[in-house]
Amino acid sequence: MPRPPDRLRPRALSQRLLSLVIDDPEKRECLLGDLHEDRSEIAAARGRVGAALWFWAALVRVIVRCGWERIRTGGRTRSTGRGGRGVMETIIRDVRLAARHWARSPGFTTAAALTVALGIGATTTVFSVADAVLARTPTGVRDPRSLVGVRLFDSGQQARTLFSYPVFQEYRDAANGLEAVSVLDLFTATIGAGRGSEPQAVSGMVVSADYFSILGTRLQAGRFFLPDEDVPGQPVPVVVLSYGYWVRKMGADPEVVGRTVTINRTAFTVVGIAEEGFRGHLAAYDFSIWIPVAAAPAVSDIDPTSPDVHRFALIGRIASGASLERVQAAAEVVTERIRAAHPGELAHLSIVPEPYQKVFEEIRGPITLLTALFSALAGIVLLIASVNVGGMLLARASGRTREMGIRLALGAGRATLLRQLLTESVILFLVGGGAGALLAYWATRSIGALNLPTPVPVVIDAPLDGRALLFTLCCALLSGAAFGLAPAVQATTPDIRGALVGDAVVPSIRGGRLRSALVVLQVAGSVVLLAVAGVLARGLGKAGEVDLGFDPTGVHVVGFDLSLLRYSDAEAQVFVEEASRRAAALPGVEHVAIAGMLPLGSSSMSTIVEVPGRDSSSGQGGVATDVDFVTADFFRTLAIPTTTGRSFNAGEAREGGAIVVNETASRRLWPEGSPVGKSVRLLDREMTVVGVVPDGKYRSLGEAPRPMVYAPPRRANSGEVFLLTRTVPGASLRPGALRGILHDLDPDLPIQTDAAFARIIGTSLLPNRVAAGVAASFGGAALLLATMGLYGVLSYTVGRRTREVGIRMALGADISRLRSAVLLDGVRLVGVGLLVGIPVALLLTWSLRAMLYGLSPADPGTYVTCVVALTATGVVASILPARRATRVDPVCALRSE
Amino acid sequence: MGKSEYLGELEQMALLAVARLGDRAYGRAIRTVLAERAGRRISHGASYVTLERLEGKGYLTSRVADPAAGRGGRPKRYFNVTPEGFRALRETRAAFASLWDGLEEIVEES
Q1: Mean pLDDT in residue range A824-833
Q2: 3-state secondary structure of A591
Q3: Is the dihedral of CA A343, A344, A346, A349 positive or negative?
Q4: ipTM of model
Q5: CA A665 – CA A677 distance, rounded (Å)
Q6: Percent of chain B residues past pLDDT 90, beyond the cut
Q7: Which of helix, strand or coil describes residue B102?
Q8: Which among A22, A33, A81 has the least Cβ separation from residue B74?
Q9: Quick one: three-class SS letters along A636-662?
Q10: For the segment A766-809, what is each residue's pLDDT rounded down to a tens digit?
């Protein structure tokens, strides 16, 4: 077919596309004429753009329909009338041919299938995790579309706030368009299942009786809460357990309903076990127990129904027949009424019901970013893998032009050949995809077994289910078809005569360009992956060099929460002092301290420090600062030196009244000089600064210097406290020694933390480690693939130039110049790939700034290394082909025709 | 094409549409008749494939006319029903008639 010069214009493009499925040019023209007529009509109604869109959509449908017809009839557009092969038969025959074809070259097949497996395995793993964390409705939550999260905004503070119980009641009892609405509050409690078992800290929810029916959750055994059990002021201690807790901690005892368990030293009756898999409605979080609001005072000191306690989130289900808009309109009416009834403190409240999915998304925010990054990286790996295999197929296809030419000459339909070649590539991708699924299965299992250090336990339940497998299958089929099509089209294009005569004389320019483009893509993808991996790893390294401001080596930490067991302040004080005394007596222990917060731990507290007598409006009067409540030995335990003044003495630590500040706090509060001896107001108390310590890291390794104030402990019974010990160098603590001390003092006390301090800090780096590890393994795979791809393409190109090289050598060309010409070819491809890939890599690494600890996203070290590594790869991949090229015997080369 | 080869539903409809259009039966006109008379809106692909199949079976012949205006200068392909095609239509109708025989009342009433 003569090629018109304007072959990329739409008309020519539509012709070319149609030619894939309709051989007869006249029929194509007529069909396009029909489409054109309709297009003109549609253009009059919908405009030119609409008509163009319609046209292309219609064209695609024609191609799909006709393509399917050809597959169905085995490429016979005209029936022979003698019952040709059925669809199934054709497919089976094609598959058998393809399998035989691959079995003939096991080396190539294994390499290609493994490549595909790597790409698809990575993508499927990330897909499964993303699907589990981001997309899937938690087990036991049904029909999430009619669920709403009801939010409360305070227009005075311009912030979101939480409901108090009375406001909830008003909203619940008003005409709100909801079938039912429930409060939610999260808590941590200790639960003992019986004698002798070590008490466990678990995460639980305080809910209304309707909570389960709103979500549509079912029961494994027993019942949910009754309305009688949901009347504040009349506590009935009943509890519903999660299936997981019931199985793990109670051995799935069928008799458990009706028995009592001890929660924070109060006996609760187990009334029900929720259905298998239900862990609450909050995605990956793992809740084990639910209690009604009325019973909440039994697990905490707070009266949840007081108007001053704002701690409830709301979830509700839209009544059948109502819509979200109606629920929102109803909420506005209720808002008005509440504002009018409470002109004082509630005058600025707005109740805003929002789709549950939206509420959900916010909870998952941080995970989303990481997942998006991994998805991008995995996608790049799959792309590289597909491109790579596409390149391999293309190279083979060129080698098969002769075979195809002969088959065409013998009367095989082009469609039949296309179909067979496509089947070959799809089979290859399916086999690779199968291996990829196995890889993903293993990877998701490993991820599920991870124990992530989060305040509420997180379970990433990413089973390799139907959806993930379907995704894998689609990936395999699509990439198989996409990357098999070009080689297949190319292989079946050549003119028959040329192929029979031997077309090695005129290598296909178009195929060459396509191959080069594939290599460029691979190099670009590799540089992206390598740069991301490199920058993340260097960032991690940088995190290790960060000056923490303290020394965690040799420090062991146990954390416990006496408020769970309802210790009074005095009792807690005695407990903590006794525990410290016993810990100090352990062999090897040098210092012991108590702290309310751990630097780089999972919680932090901040407050305002004021300098008395200063005008607070001047901006220097009060400074927002982090605060930690620590005993006198804290600084020695963590090896924090005092730069000025001293630490508090034991008396001050007991009585309060003295504080130690860090350098940043000192500079902000007293820019003029030393703060020692100055007084401040902190938490409604006058305190004297006795010392200054250097800045450290308090919340994250990447943070800028922030002000910190250390005050002596106030109450030992409010929340988790930490007992820290430092052992003398060379000595180490007997495992479980601290735990033993605590349990000697109170066998019911759950130990929430028990680890070396260095390990706790290490876990705060976990996301970075995981990200760097994933990126590095993807990057390594990409580098390997790119090397293989480059080598394949270059050795192929050189092979095709045997004759040219032979002639040149016969004419006396310089061998080393020929070699460097081949080398240069390879390096040029790498160069273009780098030019394409580096901007993308910069964009990605720039978005990861927060994980780099001050390392520049454009870290020159990383980028130079990437460039050097890939260029070296290019050179290595080119050397062998270059050597082979120049070892050609000119006589052989010339005779090769 | 043996005697036992009956027409599929769409094939039958397309043949009837071509027969109805006489000398004016080309792709777009056929699709219009099917839509207006039978309420069947079929895609370009489906109509192309069906007509092609009917031609392959020898029930239709086609000829390409000169390029026409309003079609981007592209030709039309006109179809005609062959005697074979008319016979197939008759046979199909007869087969249906014999299947329907005596069933009208039952089908109408239920």
Answers
A1: 85
A2: strand
A3: positive
A4: 0.91
A5: 15
A6: 48
A7: coil
A8: A33
A9: HHCCCCCCEECCCCHHHHHHCCEEEEE
A10: 666 666 777 777 777 777 776 776 776 666 666 666 677 777 77
Nearest to A595 by CA among A536, A657, A653: A653
The mean per-residue pLDDT over the stretch A477-482 comes to 78
Q: How confident is the model at residue B61 (pLDDT cuts 50, 70, 90)?
A: very high
Helix (H) or strand (E) holding A724: strand A720-727
**Confidence (pLDDT) at A7:** 40
Q: d(Cα A179, Cα A176) in Å, to the nearest integer?
A: 9
Please give, rounded to a whole number of angstroms, the shortest distance from the CA of A185 to a CA of chain B. 56
Find tokens 């807690």 and name the residue: A572
C-beta separation of A413 from A71 below 8 A = no
How far apart CA A87 and CA A527 sit, in angstroms, is 45
Name the CA dihedral angle for A326, A328, A334, A338, rounded to a multiple of 10 degrees.
Answer: -170
C-alpha A634/C-alpha A710 separation (Å) is 10
Q: Which residues contact A317 (CB under 8 A, 6 or more apart)?
A: A146, A147, A148, A178, A179, A180, A181, A214, A215
Buried b (16+ CB within 10 A) or exposed e, B47-67: bbbbbbbbbbbbbbebeeeee
Predicted pLDDT of residue B55: 92
d(CA A39, CA A50): 9
The one-letter code for the residue type at A353 is P
Please spell the DSSP secondary structure of A681-714, one letter per residue: EETTEEEEEEEEE----SS-TTPPP--EEEE---
In whole angstroms, what separates CA A40 from the centre of its chain?
A: 48
Q: Which residue of B has its CA nearest to A11?
A: B72
Judge whether B102 is closer than 8 Å to chain A, CB to CB.
Answer: no
Tell me which residue in B26, B43, B74 faces A36 most closely, judged by beta carbons. B74
SS3 of A261-316: the string is: EEECCEEEEEEEEECCCCCCCCCCECCCEEEEHHHHHHCCCCCCCCCCCEEEEEEE
CB-side neighbour CA atoms (13 Å) of A811:
8
Using CB atoms, which residue from A27, A62, A77 is nearest to B44? A62
Instruction: Tell me the residue type at A463.
Output: P
Interface check for B71 against chain A (CB to CB < 8 A): the answer is yes
E strands present in A462-619 = 555-561, 589-595, 606-610
In angstroms, the CA A735 to CA A586 distance is: 12
Does pLDDT of B18 surpass 90? yes
Model confidence pLDDT, tens digit, residues A339-354 = 888 776 677 788 888 8
Tell me which amino acid residue A456 is.
Answer: V
Average pLDDT, chain A: 78
Tell me, what amino acid is at A292? P
